[in-house]
Amino acid sequence: MRHLTGCPRSFGFRQPAEWDAHAATWGGWPFDDEEWRGQLEAARTEYAAFARAVANCEPFWLLVADDESLDDAQSRLGSAVRYLRVPMDDVWLRDSGPIFVTRPDDATVSCVHWRFNAWGRKFDWQLDDDVPEAVVAALDLDHFDAELVFEGGSIETNGQGVAITTRQCLLEPLRNPGLTERDLEHVLAEYLGLTRIVWLELGLQGDHTDGHVDTIARFVDEDTVLACVAEDASDPNHDVLAENAARLRAHFKVIEIPTPREARFFGEERLPLTYVNYCLANGSVIVPQYGDYNDDRALEIVRHAFPGRDAIALSSAAIITSGGSFHCLTQHQPQGALWKAPESI
Question: Is pTM beyond 0.90 here?
């Protein structure tokens, strides 16, 4: 396993589309009831159902933080998943894990280890910042190290060099102070092979990630975006999401999908409920459900957006109390041979 400081693009790598074939999905078993606001048991029940759904489609690597987590996960999942003991602060691997990149010329796979600081130092992060090292060590994967603070949920790509993100997140000053929009575009071009970024402004109210795009807009093919809309004009998300959808229409075909009809709160904090935080696995798309009036309708919209995939509806009502859903919890590993860097570099 070698750490490289060069740029992936110079070796022919780019971030692939998420609907491309996967070799595996990586996730982390929920732990620490205080971190989960007293919802740990319910979150673990939902997570177990989710992990089984993914593992029915492709290998699932489950990171466990301690002995209790390992024992609990094994009691629920048995041999359905692969276990890896890794110290963690939290389990949102979309953001703390590496981002995998592929080289189309020879179908090889590497990844980028970004810096992680818990969405602008909101929580403890020192252990999570080392999660990518555990992943690449398990794979014995030559990879790239980047000094940029960056989270996988903040970017959505079509696999052809085009991406969507939000200024609210990427320009938030506690992540990369002093970097401009142009600076960020340059780094993302070098490390993810991006040639064009469409910038949205804001994300959902109550999203502690500062507007991650994977809660508001997702590509379903190279030219089509599934975009959230809030149908109630009195909803504080209504105007923000309407503006996002209008911007997206200037560049892509847009399929609108409603947010849940009923706002949900944990204490006084609004939760960022969304149906586009689905998880793609080989042959399926796993869609979060909240016991809301719009659950069935949203499921059908996602089903039609991904013809040929099984649309699986699973509860995320407990998981969302900690701020995210299925996509936030996982990082996908594209199919392909693991890259070995040339000895000359």
Answer: yes
